[in-house]
Every structure is written in C-alpha cells, then in structure tokens.
C-alpha cells in the first residue's frame, strides 16, 4: 500500500505532473459493480460476509476500509478512462486488480477495475472494441475469465509461465515467458505479440496493466528485467496507442521489490513517457 502514497509525491517532486493534473475519485455507483460482478458476490463483499476461505483467497483481512478502497479504485479507473477519451492518455495510480473474478476475489484483488472500466465504456457507447494489455508478471486470470467469449474485449496477458496463478485461465492471447527472461528477449516477444493482435483485432480503446513486478529485483517476479527494460516496455505500449490514435488508460498493477524507492521509480517511468509522448 505504501507505494500508492509515495508515487504522487515523487511525481510532483520530479516535476512530471502538477497538482492540477490529479483527480480524486469517489466510490463508484453500485450499478457499475453489478455490470461486471455477480449480485451474490457483491452483497457478501459489501456486507463483510465472505467465508473464511473466500477471505483467505484474497490475501487481505476483510474490512470496511478495504471494501471502500476497492470501490474507489474502480472509479479511479473509470474516471481515468474518461480523461483518456479527452486527452489521449490518463492513469490510475492504483488499479490493475486483474485477479478478481465476477464471483470471487483472489490474489489481493477484490473487484476487477479493468473489467468494470471496459464494461462501463461499452455500456455507455464510449468504445466498441477494447484491448486489454496486461504486462504484470502474473496472468490476468480474473479478467480473462470475465471476458471469455466476448468479441468486444480482447484480453492479452504476457506473464511468467511458472508464476501465480498456478491454474491459468484462457485469455484471447496468452504469452507465458520463462523464469529469468531479460530485456532484449522480453521486448522482442512483446512486439511480435502486439503485431499478431493488430492483425486480428482493431481496438478503439486500450487498457494497460503496467505492473512492475517483472523487475529483476522483484521478490515475486522471477524475471530479470531492468528499469530501462521496463521503460522500453512501457514505451512500446504507449507508442502503439499513440500511433493508432487510440485512447489508453494505464493502471499500475503489482510491484514487490524490496526497495520501495525502486518500485516508485519503476512506476514513475510510465508517467514520464506519457508527458514525453502526449503533452
């Protein structure tokens, strides 16, 4: 949680953004939660009535504060998507809760902000074809499950082959990479996968899960990417959106390096690139 408090201050300190560039979301309307998540699950979560096993699967002790935080994060991504429609790009400093299924939470994710945002855009006719680019080191299993068989949302997950979750879901395109993969090979694979996607899917909106747990310093990642490699990864994705003239909303996803400064620096890079490429 600490990185979410430190990142805004770092962005301001470095002059990447100004105070007026920030927005503060309010909790999202229940309607949009239920547009993605089942009524039974939402009521159990809202009323703090998850079973012990359901709570254990999320990885968090269940509390009112945690649920309130999750529904605020959801609206952060939805509002960021609206700003992206206006400015070409926008960010949610939190978000990327891609392990949450329609009917359950998993892996530190209670509600799926990526799925809620995609459904919000489609429901309000703000986008017709949404590409989810999920480059967190862990597969976006919840997102893949929610949009299975949905032709309007293309889910792409590039993740660690032997990393969590052990039981993977089927995305529209999955690319599982081996432990220890480094910058050059990773970036080459990413570019080739994006080329494949664009041959079969034409997005009018992109949601980018830009997790930095691909770093070699990450305690959970098991890959070997450098800060420069992560920045080049982000550049590839943002350049893609810019070249297609397609709005992009970025959510931060995971990052578990032992040094909090390293995590914040890695996340800051995508904001630097957004300023460089868009403003």
From TrEMBL:
Pfam families: Hist_deacetyl (PF00850). Keywords: Hydrolase. GO terms for molecular function: histone deacetylase activity; hydrolase activity. Residues 10-268 form the Histone deacetylase domain. One of its GO terms (biological process) is epigenetic regulation of gene expression. It comes from the Bacteria. InterPro entries: HDAC_classIV, HDACs, His_deacetylse_dom, His_deacetylse_dom_sf, Ureohydrolase_dom_sf. Belongs to the histone deacetylase family. This is Acetoin utilization deacetylase AcuC-like enzyme. It comes from Algoriphagus chordae. The lineage of its organism: Bacteria, Pseudomonadati, Bacteroidota, Cytophagia, Cytophagales.
